[in-house]
Amino acid sequence: MNIEMPVTLKMGELMSEDEFFQFCQMNDTLEFERDSNGNIIVMSPTGSFTGNFNSRISGYLFIWNESTGLGEVFDSSAGFTLPNGAVRSPDVSWIKEEKWAALSQADKEKFAPVCPDFVVEIRSKSDDIKYLQNKMGEYIDNGTQLGWLIDRFDNKVYIYSSRKTMFVHDTLHLQLSGEEVLPGFELDLGALIK
Asked: CA-based Rg of the chain, rounded to a whole angstrom?
C-alpha cells in the first residue's frame, strides 16, 4: 500500500489551540501539524538517513549558536503557532534571543506563538515537494527571514528569504550561508551528503 504523505484530516474549527495541543500530547508517538484552517496534518516519521542528516545540520547550527548566543535552536519535534494560526514543526529552526525571551513561560511550554526567524525543511522520501514549497512560502509570509528547503532526491536546494525571493541551486555540493540572519554561519552541505 502506497499512501501519499502528508495526510490531511479536515477538521475546520473543531479544536481550539489548547485542544489541539492536548491531542498532540495524547498521541505523542505520532507527528502532527495544523494548517491555518484548523485541519490536522499527519506526518510520517522520516527515514534513518534523513533523521541523521537533520541531526547533523542541527548540530552545526547549535555549535554556531553556542558561540554567538544570538538565539535558540529547535529540533523537528518543536511546534510553533504562526501568526496565521497554523502550527508547524520545521526540521530545524532558530529564533532570535529577544523574540524568545519576550514569550511567557506558559507560551514556551506549548506551541509557542512565534514564527522562527530561520527554518530548514529536508525532503524525506515520502514528502511531496510541492507541499514543502508551500510550507516554506507560509513560513516566509508569517515572518521567517531565511529558509532552506533541501531536496536530496532531486539534488536541489531552495533558498527562501524575507525579501520574497526564492533561488534554486541545482546541486547539493555547495556552501550555504546564514546571510545577515545568522551572521557568520556557514554550512558545507556537500560534506554532509555521504
From this structure: 16
pLDDT digit string (tens) for 73-113?
A: 999 989 999 999 999 999 999 999 999 999 999 999 999 99
* Three cell numbers written together for 149: 528547503
Cell matching residue 124: 524525506
Q: State residue 145's pLDDT score.
A: 97
Higher pLDDT, 38 or 66: 66
Burial environment of residue 129 by CB neighbours within 10 A (0 to 12, 13 to 18, 19 or more): middle
Each residue of 160-177: pLDDT tens digit? 999 878 999 999 999 999
- Which long-range contacts (C-beta less than 8 Å, at least 24 apart) are formed by 180-183? 181/117, 181/118, 181/145, 181/146, 182/61, 182/64, 182/70, 182/94, 182/118, 182/146, 183/68, 183/70
Indicate whether 27 pLDDT > 60: yes
Find where cell 475546520 sits.
12
Q: Is the CB of residue 124 less than 8 Å from the CB of residue 137?
A: no
| b/e code 137-175 from CB counts within 10 Å (16+ = b) | ebbbebebbbbbbbbbeeebbbbbbeeeeeeebeebeee
Rounded-to-integer distance, Cα 48 and Cα 101, Å: 34
Distance of CA 134 to the CA centre of its chain: 12
Residue type, 37: N
- Look at the chain and count its residues: 194
